[in-house]
Design goal:
Layout (H helix, E strand, L loop, with lengths): L8 E10 L9 H9 L5 E14 L4 E14 L5 E5 L3 E7 L5 H18 L5 E15 L27 E8 L4 E10 L6 E12 L10 H19 L2 H7 L4
Antiparallel strand pairs: 1-5, 1-6, 2-3, 3-4, 4-5, 6-9, 7-8, 8-9
Length: 245
């Protein structure tokens, strides 16, 4: 993302999903946490509820269960790792420090994981940016701030009460997909209008890149997200991010 004095980023997520051939045992989470404990000293958990319903010719039965997913956090809890079965995601909350500071942390985590188990394939890798955009005023002319927006002939943009627009953009020669969404959100500040712009860039095909190419892919993904974001907003909105209006 471009460097703004007041960046709108509220969360960035980098997620890896590994192939079923990648060995994943019960000791991996503890070994992984020990290696990253200096940066992520805190530990928590997420409890996932599971529901299984089986139907046969003679009868049907249901089974409830739960699975715990470890979470490793920085001391200020603004950055954390969710560690699931062959799924690892790194989350960075506001204030976003910059890609130049977040990327090395992702690289460190991926390196530690690669040393803890042999990654034999990547089913999915994704980079997600969530931007919360707050604009002064309650009746906003979207054309002044967004190039990516809903358009309906005969209706003024400021008359839209709620909306959700989205598009899937093929990238990198169809190898990747960028899912772009813009929606109006509940305003937390009086006299402001709030919008959420979500940019979800991910690998389109399973094992579309080798495990050794993950960091190169991430750099390309970030570059594409940066360009797409700038093409979605106007110069006036950029000025707002920089406190110029």
């Amino acid at each position: 993302m471009a460097q703004y004095s007041s960046p709108p980023v509220v969360e960035v997520v980098c997620e890896f999903r590994f192939s079923s051939k990648t060995e994943w045992n019960d000791t991996l989470a503890d070994r992984f946490h020990k290696a990253v404990q200096e940066t992520f000293p805190e530990r928590d958990r997420i409890v996932e509820r599971q529901f299984e319903f089986t139907v046969t010719q003679d009868n049907s039965q249901s089974k409830n269960g739960k699975r715990e997913r470890p979470v490793f956090l920085t001391q200020d809890r603004r950055m954390f790792i969710q560690f699931g079965e062959r799924i690892v995601s790194i989350h960075c909350l506001k204030p976003y420090p910059s890609w130049e500071k977040f990327r090395p942390i992702i690289e460190q985590i991926y390196k530690v994981l690669s040393e803890a188990t042999e990654i034999k394939g990547i089913d999915r890798i994704g980079l997600l940016y969530v931007d919360k955009i707050e604009i002064p005023g309650t009746e906003i002319d979207l054309t002044e701030y967004f190039k990516f927006r809903p358009v309906i002939e005969g209706y003024k943009p400021e008359s839209f009460v709620n909306f959700l627009v989205g598009v899937d953009l093929p990238c990198a020669g169809q190898r990747d997909l960028c899912r772009l969404q813009l929606t109006r959100a509940v305003a937390e500040r009086e006299g402001y209008s709030t919008f959420l712009l979500t940019t979800d860039y991910f690998l389109r095909k399973r094992q579309g890149i080798p495990p050794a190419g993950a960091m190169v892919w991430l750099e390309e993904a970030h570059s594409a997200i940066k360009d797409i974001f700038k093409n979605c907003i106007t110069e006036r909105l950029e000025q707002l991010f920089n406190g110029e209006v």
